[in-house]
Structure of DUF4302 domain-containing protein:
Amino acid sequence: MKLKLFIFAIAILSLSVSCEKKMDRIFDESPTDRLNASVSNVYAMLQTNKDGWMIKYYPSSALEFGGYTLFAKFTNSVDVTVEGDMTTLAAQTSTYIVVPGAGPILTFDTYNRIFHYFALPGYFNKSSAYQLPGFLTAQIGSVNEGMKGENDFLVTKASADSIVMEGRKSYNKVVMVPIKSSEATTIVATYRSALTKFHAFSNYKFEVGTESFPATFATAATKRALLIAGNSKPYAYRYIPTGLEFYTEYDVNGVKFRELKYVEPTGSYAKGYFTNDAGTIKLVPQS
């Protein structure tokens, strides 16, 4: 009996060791090695596209300031140049670094007049020395927080077709998509033209079927996030060449949408309107 128990114990021990060996083979590299490899991959992806990246950026976890389109070229493992749709300021060069943390952390580690504007406290962004040509000329946000932007981003995906990040302070999703060589020389001007055209509108209302829902701006100075009566969460968006692209999928009276395309003035819509592909919702400028 004792012999049987001994043999049984040896069998269990052998099985356990065998399982451990199988589990060990799942991870051929240490966690540190894997993290360092992911950091190297982010560096490589950032520099792969020589025409640069379009960044869909939303400062502030509450999204009250809306979204902005930035254009970045990571020219080497140190330098980055940045332009923005919201300003006519020429490309600004600064530095960046990718470091290991909970994953690869992309940090814009030296001051860039365009990128870091969103992280300036209101005490500074009210100063003409920090303001951006063509953008705001007064303080935006609170004295100590400003637009609540940030410098550090956790990279959750890095490939040739997109780089997806998460703001370490806001947890907002930030998406970078590669700029095509065919559009590299015109893309910044195209987005700036869209902003000029659509930013002029105000006092919107949503139309769904026979119902109408007035919408005001969460922040009137930026005009990139809408509030509907009874809803405390802003519908944040960026200006894009075809109309408006929203931060996430939103819902008005049961109709979901992520992008609304502009339709030129027609009939009773003297200022045109924005609509989804199905035509089931309209966002109509009132003035």
About this structure: The chain has a mean pLDDT of 92. The radius of gyration is 25 Å. The longest strand covers residues 243-252.
